[in-house]
Design goal:
single chain; 9-stranded mixed beta sheet; globular
């Protein structure tokens, strides 16, 4: 029986351990598209992604589940690509055997989803592929897999991925791959995807995939494709990039225009699973949901069971929501259609999906709260029955309501300590406490009061601007940093913070160029100004100018690692263009 080597075991030399590079180097196909993962407003100066922390964590059972979310915020963000495989056998949900001798790859370079996970028997069974692994190489688990493979049309697009019968997984694993294909102009190629449900076909239709282009993919069947187009798993951790956010927000806009919502809809939505639990009581059933439903209804929440409604209605209800409460799961994936800044409270009885769900809410810019714990320790199934902490949820929602009222009315908690009781330094210390608890709305209300009281205090003005950025209120942040620069022109930090917002969030590169040119003239020896000045040139596609600026930044501090990386990348790019 033929043996196949996992891509990760191939001697690399100078190559990175990346499916796309190895496929091309071995002559198994080519890379049609390659671009970095970008979520600009959540990346640091080095480009590393950091997940915004939750607004609050309810853990009255002291499970500690939410702890890692407060101290570990780095998010994996592998490059986005499209491969063209010369000749490939597809097995399972997303495994490709290609070349002679055969090599095995998946649709992802992510450490959680690349070919190494298939070395485990349980994962191969989960993904339903026809492979076995002897500790060194893969092989088909029966001799007729290749001979019985169904031929696909040449240059078809393979869109399928993991768990695509799950609504949430389909939304965030399958649909975003179409962004890559649209970038390549592949508007008429056949699309291979599990399309056995009306809701899947409707979603694909809204993404521009007409029914006649669809070829149904059954994971139990092997397929053979020539010049097969394989877009990578764009969102391996469910952390949405800029393009994915824009795509889902645009879809929400289209489906919400002129929509006739249910008569009793409210912008406070409780996402219920009560019908699903009655139909399948052994699957993650919330034991006290009937009680919680009544509490939420009394609080004025619209009780909504997404799976009972067409896709269009689901999008419309979430797009108009200001507060969403529900148990973590497929229904809460619809928060990708909420407007950034929506308050989301997700009940997470087990830690398994805590990071993945948090990645969705955080990357959308939502103010998210997690109510953790509550699973039944006597239930030994994977998806345990559980009970919600109703009192904790209600208390947190009351706190949120009060905080929103404060920011709308300008009221604060001054009354119980006296309006002039704090110095500016004491106020800043209090704001830091509020931020650690992710109570950003309250922090903004305090800062607004004290900025008015101490208009010439530089530290207060800076923290007021920073707080708007933390709240993802980017237009307010721009206005506040502009005011800061005008009022404190001798502080280079104001120029840099405004430029960072303009470059990485608002993508206003021309304004950033003007701001940084003025900062360079005013602070010719400031390293941070030099770094941002070089960064904006590269963002504008002016690589020669960017290289010159990065070299000047490097001259200021030769030990700075980021400048070395940028110079090397730009030199390689310019050599390639010259060649």
């Amino acid at each position: 029986m033929d043996q196949f080597f996992p891509i990760s075991d191939i001697p690399q030399g100078s190559l990175a351990p990346s499916s796309r590079r190895i496929v091309e180097a071995l002559g198994l196909g080519k890379t049609l598209l390659l671009e970095p993962f970008l979520r600009r407003e959540m990346a640091d100066a080095a480009g590393d992604l950091a997940r915004p922390r939750p607004y609050g964590i309810i853990d009255r059972l002291k499970t500690g589940y939410g702890g890692p979310l407060t101290w570990s915020t780095k998010v994996e963000a592998p490059d986005i690509y499209v491969l063209e495989l010369d000749d490939a056998i597809v097995t399972g949900e997303r495994t490709f055997v290609t070349g002679t001798p055969g090599r095995v790859i998946t649709d992802s370079d992510s450490v959680e989803h690349d070919v190494r996970v298939l070395m485990r028997a349980d994962r191969r069974q989960f993904e339903r592929n026809a492979l076995q692994f002897d500790g060194r190489v893969f092989s088909f688990d029966r001799p007729d897999v290749a001979s019985e493979a169904v031929p696909l049309p040449d240059s078809a697009i393979f869109l399928s991925s993991m768990e695509e019968n799950n609504y949430g997984a389909f939304l965030l694993r399958v649909v975003p791959k179409l962004i890559q294909m649209q970038d390549l102009g592949c508007h008429d190629r056949p699309v291979v995807v599990t399309s056995n449900s009306d809701w899947k076909r409707r979603i694909l239709g809204y993404m521009g995939v007409a029914p006649q282009r669809l070829i149904h993919h059954a994971a139990e069947q092997a397929y053979r494709g020539r010049n097969l187009l394989v877009p990578s798993l764009r969102l391996p951790t469910f952390f949405l990039d800029d393009r994915s956010v824009a795509t889902f927000q645009s879809l929400a806009d289209r489906l919400s225009a002129g929509a006739a919502l249910p008569a009793d809809v409210s912008d406070h939505v409780y996402v219920s699973r009560i019908a699903a639990s009655r139909a399948n009581p052994g699957y993650r059933a919330m034991q006290n949901e009937p009680e919680l439903v009544e509490v939420m209804r009394d609080q004025g929440y619209f009780i909504f069971e997404p799976q009972l409604h067409p896709f269009e209605v689901q999008v419309q209800v979430f797009a108009q929501a200001k507060v969403v409460v529900g148990a973590g799961g497929a229904g809460m994936f619809n928060t990708i259609f909420c407007r950034p800044g929506t308050t989301v409270l997700s009940m997470e009885p087990q830690p398994d999906w805590l990071v993945g769900h948090s990645n969705i809410f955080a990357s959308m810019g939502h103010r998210y709260i997690l109510a953790v714990g509550g699973s039944d320790p006597t239930d030994h199934s994977v998806q345990k029955r559980w009970s919600a902490d109703i009192a904790g949820v209600v208390a947190m929602l009351a706190h949120i309501g009060e905080a929103h009222a404060k920011i709308r009315t300008g009221a604060t908690d001054f009354d119980h300590i006296g309006r002039s009781a704090l110095t500016a330094a004491e106020l800043l210390a209090h704001v830091e406490v509020l931020r650690r608890e992710w109570r950003l709305i309250e922090a903004d209300a305090w800062l607004a009061q004290y900025v008015a009281r101490f208009p010439d205090n530089e530290a207060l003005q800076a923290e007021f601007a920073k707080n708007a950025r933390l709240r993802n209120d980017n237009q307010a942040a721009r206005s506040r940093w502009r005011d800061f620069v005008a009022q404190f022109p001798d502080n280079p930090g104001g120029f840099c913070n405004l430029a960072d917002l303009l470059i990485h969030v608002l993508k206003e590169f021309d304004e950033a160029e003007d701001i940084l040119a003025a900062a360079r003239d005013r602070f010719p020896g400031d390293l941070n100004v030099a770094i941002y000045f070089a960064t904006v040139a590269r963002c504008r596609g002016r690589d020669v100018e960017a290289l010159e600026r990065w070299r000047k930044a490097h001259d200021m501090d030769e030990a700075h690692p980021f400048s070395k990386i940028q110079i090397a990348e730009l030199e390689e790019t310019l050599r390639g263009e010259a060649g």
